[in-house]
Amino acid sequence: MLRNYLRKMAGTTQSPPGVGLAEIFWSWLGGCLGIGAVAYLNFQLVEKADQVLLVASLGASAVLIYGATKSPLAQPRNLVGGHLISAFIGVASYKIFAPHLWLAATLAVAFSIAAMHATKTLHPPGGATALIAIIGGPKIQSLGFFYLVLPVGAGVLIMLVVALIFNNLPRTRRYPEFWL
Fold it and tell me: In the chain, where are the structural domains located?
């Protein structure tokens, strides 16, 4: 029984093939443009109004929408839905369980995973978006449900627009694979 259990951890397939230098370059450039746009707006405009636009989970989204454009997890439905659903759950968890941050963090991530599965919007950075609502500090926590609009909604929208324009420039790339 233990042997069969441990055998599961051996894997069943080989590692996927590597990508060529052109794909690496386009992924790198997409990441620069997407995060660059959000970071520029954050530091030049939004932060001056004592707000925030740049959250860490957008970095993970950049890996998916610029580096793994064909992945179901990188598609617009997943990008937008996964972040917004998780942001809502993160804020709600903070408001309900604030005195017990360990519990708020645990339930925010777990419920985000379940909700993203249920709505077909699974986007791994969404788990981080939920967590940031709780551990992001007073500036993030004070936003309450506005966290869904700024930084999450606006940041995701900027990244999506850049992905739609940029990922379709080279003949070898296409984005998105599906919308709904």
Answer: 21-166
